[in-house]
Amino acid sequence: MLFRPSGRLARALAPTLMTLQAAWVPAGAAQAQPHALAPAIDAQVARHYPGLEQLYQDLHAHPELGFQEVQTAAKLAAAMRAAGFTVTEQVGRTGLVALLRNGPGPTILVRTDMDALPMEEKTGLPYASHVQVDHLGRQTFVAHSCGHDLHMAGWVGTALTLAALKDRWQGTLMFIAQPAEELLGGAKAMLADGLFQRFGKPDFAFALHTWPMAHGEIGFNVGAVTSNADAFELTFNGRGAHGSAPDKSIDPLLMASRFVVDVQGVVSREKDPFQFGVLSVGAIQGGTSGNIIPDSALLRGTLRSYDPAVRTKLRDGLRRTALATATMAGAPEPKLTITPGGDATVNDARLVERAETVLKAAFGAQVKRMPPITPSEDFAEFGSAGVPSMFFLVGVLDPKDVEAARQPGGKPVPGNHSPFFAPVPEPSIKTAVKAMSLAVLSALQR
């Protein structure tokens, strides 16, 4: 029987009692419905937020590139041990696995990524990154311009919240901190290191990602939610000459220029216009001086798609265009390497439906289904390994800025991979923790 005070004491204790009553589960009763635990989750989020903000700012100011996340992983390992998890480090090189066993029930995987980007931050934040490292032979700035720092803070916050509420659920939490998401290699590395053989195969998997939506908004899709990704590296070999004597050369820069233009014909003339497919060149390297025609040029780029047939068409078109470009110039066959990246992330329909019900009960109209996004994610590797999974997006920007950007002539908001990408920490982290906690609890229900 619940204690029921009266009079002045009842009025003073009313907010606290409402929270306790909403989350209270009688001994021997069935597990509480996840949405009924929302007040208790809010209380845990408020309790832990100061430490989460400190962790977020520390991670933001000290980013590390893929497979170099040594200090990042150490900070997360310490936080998870403090939360009561059993932690194993150096899984898939710099990854870690944190387990919390709490009786019989499903095993739920919750993933965060850890790596940052090789780019300069220009946010002007007091905790902005000024880190520089040697990357591909040159000094390069490093920045958390894709929000992985916020993912990590939310991941730790979710672990703390669920650990504090472990008398309300049963099962096993498998929290993994994954390296090298930006390289689309970290999930594969952890799986190749025996993730499921060593720690058990989870029943369900969850991950979230920051997105340039208003903070408080949550978006997801059933089916494909991110794209397939392939990287390519293409070298045209020609013949160098003086810039004043182009007739003596086989100009690789001209070949590179032609290729960049001509390869878009694969997208505009060979691919079904109603299916998504992108072929983008992101880097060209060649030459050292304005009066020297070099003997080679290197191009790097990416292929993105949802459908496997479109993926194959883009790969084939890339090869044909590269060979045709070199042949027209009388150059040797170019060197082309296509490196398969992540598959499309596909959300499990039943898992999404269960989580959607709980999230809408807690967040209302801020929860919405949305079309797939064009970036890629190696979280897909866990789904490809046979684990039903859900990947969702969390808005992190000021709603006023987002609304202003929608107006005619409005200034676009900085999105992921922009040097000006600057999530609003408190509402974004709190939403991430609450949403992920509720999603996990929805999967823990029998």
TrEMBL record:
Its cofactor is Mn(2+). It comes from the Bacteria. Residues 228-316 form the Peptidase M20 dimerisation domain. SUPFAM superfamilies: Bacterial exopeptidase dimerisation domain (SSF55031), Zn-dependent exopeptidases (SSF53187). Pfam families: M20_dimer, Peptidase_M20. Keywords: Hydrolase, Manganese, Metal-binding, Signal. Mn(2+) binds at C146, H148, E182, H209, H417. GO terms for biological process: diaminopimelate biosynthetic process. Residues 1-29 form the signal peptide. GO terms for molecular function: metal ion binding; N-acetyldiaminopimelate deacetylase activity. This is Peptidase M20. Transmembrane segments: none annotated.
